[in-house]
Amino acid sequence: LCSDCLDKDKNGIMLKKSTLYALQYVASSDIKKLFSFELKPEIKEEFIGIIRRFGNKYMNHEFNSVEFLKM
Fold first, then answer.
1. Which ranges in 11-63 belong to alpha helices (H)?
2. Could you tell me if 43 and 19 are in contact, meaning their C-beta atoms sit under 8 angstroms apart?
3. Which of 6, 30, 46, 64 could join 19 in a cystine, given CB atoms 3.0 to 4.6 angstroms apart?
């Protein structure tokens, strides 16, 4: 969310632009290209946090690909 909208949504998260771009890339890319990019450490940490938060809310299982991202 942007800083203006963050106050309106108690569950909202302020993301760095690079993290948002990475999430958009993953959502729109062919599965063969998913691991063809690198993230700076601070973006990677935020990215993994979002993936975990989404997983905790919508799934009852942590997938190996999330563990792979930690490397």
1. 17-28, 41-58
2. yes
3. 46
Structure token pair of residue 50:
């979002």
Q: Determine the Cα–Cα distance for residues 10 and 65; give it in Å rounded to an integer.
A: 29
Query: Which residues are CB-contacts of 32 (< 8 A; sequence separation ≥ 6)?
Result: none
Tens place of pLDDT per residue across the chain (71 aa): 677 777 888 778 888 999 999 999 988 988 887 777 889 999 999 998 988 887 777 766 665 655 555 55
On the CB side of 44, CA atoms within 13 Å amount to 12
User: Rounded to two decimals, what is the model's pTM?
Assistant: 0.68
